[in-house]
Amino acid sequence: MIKVEAIIRSQKIDAVKEALDAIEAGSMTVSEVRGRGQQKGITQQWRGAEYVVDFIPKSKLEIVVPDEKAEKIVDIICNVANTGNIGDGKIFLIPVKDAIRVRTKERGDRIL
Ligand SMILES: Nc1ncnc2c1ncn2[C@@H]1O[C@H](COP(=O)(O)OP(=O)(O)OP(=O)(O)O)[C@@H](O)[C@H]1O
Ligand SMILES: [Mg+2]
């Protein structure tokens, strides 16, 4: 199993969710996060003064899937969440040791 952890623009979450539903990868966790990438935040102007916004709000999407589905999900997120501008986000692929359904104690990728 692989956890696909994607940090993307919040306004792209709904479109990504719908695209993932279409390939039966509908279970996911979404959180509102703040972060910075290689530009280390953004510099803004306000009343003639410059100030730096260090951490920019983003949404984090976590989806645990069987190994063979991960690349398809990466593809979908890259296509749907892309605006072509800096700050479109990043995806991390993380190996998952096991998954357990609390209600039944079933394990493995069949519970995803
Ligand atoms: N190396 C990293 N570790 C953890 N989180 C990261 C890392 N890089 C980016 N992020 C997270 O992803 C968000 C979006 O990053 P962002 O898209 O700005 O990446 P980037 O590398 O700066 O690419 P770009 O040049 O397209 O902006 C960041 O705000 C941060 O939350
Ligand atoms: Mg950036």
Question: Which descriptors apply to this entry?
Answer:
Alpha-Beta Plaits; binds adenosine-5'-triphosphate; binds magnesium ion; single chain; 6 strands; alpha+beta; 112 residues
Bound molecules: adenosine-5'-triphosphate, magnesium ion
What structural class do helix, strand and pairing data support?
alpha+beta
Extended strand count? 6
CATH architecture annotation: 2-Layer Sandwich
Number of domains: 1
How would you characterize the overall build of this protein?
This protein has 112 residues and is α+β, with helices and mostly antiparallel strands. The chain has a single domain, classed as 2-Layer Sandwich (Alpha-Beta Plaits). The chain is 18% helix and 37% strand. It has helices at 13-21, 70-80, and strands at 2-8, 29-35, 42-46, 49-53, 56-65, 89-95. The strands form two sheets. Strands 2-5-1-6 form a four-stranded antiparallel β-sheet, with helices on one face. β3 and β4 (49-53) form a beta hairpin. α1 packs antiparallel against α2. The model has no long low-confidence stretch (mean pLDDT 95). The structure holds adenosine-5'-triphosphate and magnesium ion. Magnesium ion binds at residues 37-39, 86-87.
